[in-house]
Give the backbone structure.
Amino acid sequence: MTSSNGPSAETTAAHGGPGGRDDLPDRVWTLPNALSVLRLLGVPLFLWLLLGPEADGWAVVVLMISGITDWADGKLARWLDQSSRLGALLDPAADRLYIVCTLVALALRDIAPVWMVALLLGREVVLGIGLLVLRRYGYPPLQVHYLGKAATFLLLYAFPGLMLAEGTGWFATAIAPFAWAFSIWGTALYLLAGVFYVVQVAGIVRAERAAAGAVP
């Protein structure tokens, strides 16, 4: 997904790095936030469709609606000047939930390879530890990197492609190479974005320790 209720990476840099999100208004009742909540409510429905009746077609529809609302909430936040701290947190949270839920479902159904599931879930665990480290030093979550957005975009199109490729007929045969290409590139970029995130967190920790050591 390529949009966000929060500022862009350039805006964050202008605000001084990871603190950019804190410069946003503390709003709750906005149209972009309502769309983000709608996306979150779609997660359990999406997971049930994949694991219950295995209605892959309807699951893809839910994912497409999620993508449309993801694009719309970012556009509306800018057009209506309704960016908010809550929106900047909800948007990446929804993306990650869809990725994790899809990975679990595809692994349980033997559609996605174990190595891909292990790498992507491992990345989420590492980033979760990074969030705890940031919180310990009084920092908010870092702004989503553009590389992470590109990776998320690829993965959220790769996963329904993998599901559709499990079917029969010419369409399943035609979409399979594209689904696997998106999956491999998306996984590579997702891991690279995670490495950048860890490097940023490590830099913050070093700076904080150096500042603490300099205090008489």
In short: The chain has seven helices and no strands. The chain has one domain: 9-214. Helices lie at 9-14, 31-51, 56-79, 85-108, 114-136, 146-165, 170-214.
